[in-house]
Amino acid sequence: MVYSSRRDLEKLCTGIFSGLGLPNDEAEDSAKILVAADARGIGSHGLARIRRYADGIKTGRIGAGITPTVLRETPVSLVLDAEGGMGLSLGKRSMEKVIDMAAAHGVGICSIRNSNHFGIAGYYAEMAARRDMIGIAMTNTAALGVPTFAREAMFGTNPIAFAVPGMDKDLFSLDMATTTVTRGKIEVAAREGTSIPPGWAVGPDGRTTIDAARLLEDMLYKRGGGLLPLGGEGIAGAGYKGYGLAVMVDILCAVSSGGVFGGAVMDTEMTSARVCHFFMALRLDLFRDPEDFKKDISRMLEELRSLTPAEGARRVYYAGLREREAEARCEQEGVPLTDEVWKTLRETAAGLGVALPPVRMETYRHD
């Protein structure tokens, strides 16, 4: 495992994106969001994806310095065509506009079509939470999820993020895929040469598969099969609920913006699909006094933290707690990256003449 400081990795990533042609502000914003994923322990959406972004920019699939087209606008809502711009920086700028609308009018909403992968959805929801608002962020993705009882993929991992503040930087931050797992976890298993657990995905016959590499290939070439919806195979685990949530995300992100949805959202070997996003912010004082609201959130989170752990479990978590603690560790120990991810960063940086930061090699300590 390779460890480097968060600031150094942000500088490295900024240098890579700038070298690829992104304007400096886009490069910096994109780097911060990407490194945040690794700092929170979400390596599937972090710097492991740098080559995919690089390929997208080099091929023109991801545009640099793009100004989105405003399709519709009101004091509380905005619909944009991203024109193929960088999803990471676009997501940040769009959430800032949503927060400004909510600050002025109580609520702000934005849907976006024709964008690119925007990293971890929770980053954007938390932007609103840090401004005493409820934050919501969603995106559709390439069709990887197989509806209950089907064989073909017809919806993406379609994540939903929801964040709300408590007192003293307390934060409830839910960031979840609507499939049982994300494709990133399948990619990690394929890189490590390990099998995936039964119940994560099905093959072209609609039956459970544990072959990560074959699954990725089948999904890429549309041979059938894919990830299972949250809840798993069939109806015993209520997989139809994850299926329904995934379709809901597609409606809010894609149908609302006039974008591409369902099975038409497809990746290529070189880069990710053009996708759609949805952002929303709600001011706390729409409901009650913000301080009282936050006090009750903190009380709720403390009650959850104080629950007696199940036998064999060390403690009880709530959404976002593990990620906050991982970030705190990274401030002291550095951000951990696998050897393979570090190799990709080295090669990408070398090709652009970007200097590497100091790192240290250690055995990864996973809590």
Overview of this structure, please?
With 367 residues, the protein is an alpha+beta fold. The chain folds into two domains: 1-65 and 335-367, Hypothetical Oxidoreductase Yiak, Chain: A, domain 1 (Orthogonal Bundle), CATH 1.10.1530; 66-180 and 228-333, 2-Layer Sandwich (Ribosomal Protein S8, Chain: A, domain 1), CATH 3.30.1370.60. The chain is built from eleven helices and twelve strands. The chain has helices at residues 6-19, 24-39, 50-59, 87-105, 121-129, 183-192, 212-220, 239-255, 290-305, 321-333, 339-352, and strands spanning 2-4, 69-74, 77-81, 107-115, 133-139, 160-165, 171-176, 201-202, 226-227, 275-283, 335-337, 360-361. The strands form three sheets. Strands 2-3-4-10-5-6-7 form a seven-stranded mixed beta sheet. Helix 4 links the parallel strand 3 (77-81) and strand 4. Helix 1 crosses helix 2, helix 2 packs across helix 4 and helix 6 packs across helix 7. The mean pLDDT is 94.
What secondary-structure arrangement, pairings included, does this model have?
Elements: E1 2-4, H1 6-19, H2 24-39, H3 50-59, E2 69-74, E3 77-81, H4 87-105, E4 107-115, H5 121-129, E5 133-139, E6 160-165, E7 171-176, H6 183-192, E8 201-202, H7 212-220, E9 226-227, H8 239-255, E10 275-283, H9 290-305, H10 321-333, E11 335-337, H11 339-352, E12 360-361
Parallel strand pairs: 3-4
Antiparallel strand pairs: 1-11, 1-12, 2-3, 4-10, 5-6, 5-10, 6-7, 8-9
Helix pairs in contact: 1-2, 1-11, 2-4, 4-5, 6-7
